[in-house]
Amino acid sequence: MIIEIDNLAVPGVEVFGTLTEAQLRNKLEPEKGLFIAESPKVIHVALDAGYQPISLLCEARHLEGDAKEILERIGDVPVYTGQRALLEQLTGYTLTRGVLCAMRRPQPKAVDEILEGARRICILDGVVDSTNIGSIFRSAAALGIDAVLVTPTSCDPYNRRAVRVSMGSVFLVPWTRLDEPITEAMHRLGFKTVAMALRNDSVLLDDPKLQSEPRLAIIMGNEGDGLSSETIAEADYVVKIPMKHNVDSLNVNAASAVAFWALR
């Protein structure tokens, strides 16, 4: 259903620009929560993974171009279209290849369900930058991490920028929120925890003991402060990546990729 717009007051377009990330999440009514997928490639990944489209926004010129295959897949959902300048005014930036899709947030799954059969998982504890979240999910998908758990102090993986940076990997790796204490939850499910931290008592990432563990949970911490002293103290292993040239640490998304590869 194509709806041409020539102003920003058309009902339905507010999800693409006016609503904040918090409003899209809709905590009061989670079953009505939405997120925004941007660019044809990311939208196709989401559709392939079974996510439900609610509406589409694209430049008029893309109806027979980048958006054509998407239109053939999404059925009779509203497709708002207009000129680039108007859509840029709505969204606040130039659209990546001119296509956005509002999608229904799935109901969150239980931690036990997400981790059934998993051997290597990542826990994001206080990782707040959406770009880092997206990059970590992309590495997790590429390097064989079975699932990701996100603590309440971390950025939402369905944040628009996180989705875009991940290139849709947030739809490929099972993830859910972890609302209980990390160590308690992991030990209950048979995981040993690996706290990534710069400590003198750390073991190196290539320590054979780590590879021999049947189930490992790799905990990545805040971009500025790292993991809390409590989390580090409770971890089964405190692990650091060997560094050269007196470099003290890597960015959390680079460190996660190294850890995922080494502990796969």
Question: If you had to describe this structure to a student in words, what would you say it looks like?
Answer:
With 264 residues, this protein is of the alpha/beta class. The chain has 11 helices and 12 strands. Strands 8-7-6-11-9-12-10 form a 7-stranded parallel sheet. Strands 1-4-3-5-2 form a 5-stranded mixed sheet. Helix 6 runs parallel beside helix 11. The chain is elongated, with a radius of gyration of 20 Å.
Please provide a brief summary of the model.
31% of the residues lie in helices and 20% in strands.
* Residue share in β-strands: 15-25%
Structural class: alpha/beta
Flag low-confidence runs: none
User: How far apart are the termini?
Assistant: 46 Å
Number of helices: 11
Q: Approximately how much helix is present in the residues?
A: 25-40%
Q: Strand order of the main beta sheet, please? A: 8-7-6-11-9-12-10
SSE layout and pairing:
Layout: E1 2-4, H1 21-25, E2 34-38, H2 40-48, E3 53-59, H3 68-74, E4 79-82, H4 84-91, E5 99-104, H5 111-114, E6 120-124, H6 130-142, E7 147-150, H7 160-165, E8 175-177, H8 182-188, E9 192-196, E10 203-204, H9 208-212, E11 216-220, H10 229-234, E12 237-240, H11 252-263
Parallel strand pairs: 1-4, 3-4, 6-7, 6-11, 7-8, 9-11, 9-12, 10-12
Antiparallel strand pairs: 2-5, 3-5
